[in-house]
Design brief:
Number of strands: 9
CATH topology of the largest domain: Rossmann fold
Structural class: alpha/beta
CATH class of the largest domain: Alpha Beta
Helix content: 40-55%
CATH architecture of the largest domain: 3-Layer(aba) Sandwich
Radius of gyration: 22 Å
Strand order of the largest sheet: 2-3-1-4-5
Order of helices and strands: EHEHEHEHHEHEEHHHEHE
Length: about 290
């Protein structure tokens, strides 16, 4: 029996993950009272049980100590029951935005500030997060991308990528991305905006790409940046980082940054034990 504990930060997508696991054949139970967890697992593990895949959702609630659930999990492990832990994560900034949009209260801040509840929850979940086999940060994940990640782990049984690298192009005139870990300025390159036939095209168009990459400095930039990231990424993974946002910016976020973000993505995809995706933040902005 494959037994998965699904836990993590409230608002990070735990319920969505449970629904997705149910869609691929997992028998899912959420918020089971802590005293019943041990008996539930024992029943499912009995000889003749037809259940082969189980996902049990655990979260922090004000009415039952999470420490009790952790003790029961340790007891189960000591009794020979094997399980995997899927921890759903998201940044505090993103969680605050989600709570504001949903107009819901955090389960640990019913009479206080949502941020206080989030901070308290992080402290409570610190130990179980360290023990998790899989940590998925949904701060920048689309629902489709979360499904792809879960399918890769629990359906295709592919190797888990603990780090997700996000390559993000942007325009400085629209502000530096607040979640960027590394920011690179490519305004040292000539701007296609001032060439009439390229002005209304973007770095997704071949004409703009050919122009930007015609300068030796552009190719050298991609070489040096990919080399640096190839050095940094294994060290980030070793230190337990789960998400890396690499911002590449030009003036408007349409030509140079888009071109070089695309080139960097092509250079680095399928190259290592990490996930990678690309986004162009400001392509939809006006000229």
């Amino acid at each position: 029996m494959r037994f998965v504990i699904v836990t993590g930060m409230s608002g990070s997508g735990k319920i969505t993950a449970m629904r997705m696991l149910e869609d691929v054949g997992f028998y899912c139970v959420d918020n089971l009272p802590v005293p019943l967890i041990e008996k539930f697992v024992e029943l499912l593990a009995m000889p003749g049980s037809e259940v082969t895949k189980v996902a049990l959702g655990l979260d922090v609630r004000a009415d039952q100590p999470f420490e009790d659930a952790q003790k029961i999990l340790e007891k189960l492990k000591g009794n020979g029951y094997n399980f995997e832990i899927l921890f759903m994560e998201a940044s505090t900034q993103v969680l605050l935005k989600r709570y504001k949009e949903s107009r819901r209260m955090h389960p640990l801040s019913l009479e206080g500030r949502v941020e206080d509840g989030i901070n308290k929850e992080r402290e409570i979940l610190h130990d179980i997060k360290k023990k998790a086999e899989y940590v998925i940060d949904t701060s920048n994940l689309l629902t489709r991308e979360l499904k792809e990640e879960l399918d890769r782990i629990f359906v295709k049984n592919e190797e888990y990528n603990s780090l997700m690298v996000n390559i993000l192009s942007f325009g400085f005139k629209h502000g530096i991305p607040a979640d960027a870990d590394l920011v690179f300025d490519v305004r040292f390159l000539p701007n296609p905006f001032y060439i009439d036939e390229l002005k209304y095209k973007t770095g997704n168009d071949k004409e703009v790409q050919d122009y930007v990459m015609s300068f030796s400095e552009a190719e050298e930039f991609v070489d040096k940046l990919s080399d640096m990231l190839n050095f940094l990424i294994p060290n980030y993974v070793k230190e337990g980082k789960y998400q890396l946002v690499v911002g590449i910016g030009c003036t408007g976020g349409k030509h140079r940054s888009v071109t070089l973000a695309n080139k960097l993505y092509d250079r680095m995809k399928n190259k290592g034990n990490y996930g990678i995706k690309i986004a162009h933040r400001d392509l939809g902005q006006g000229i």
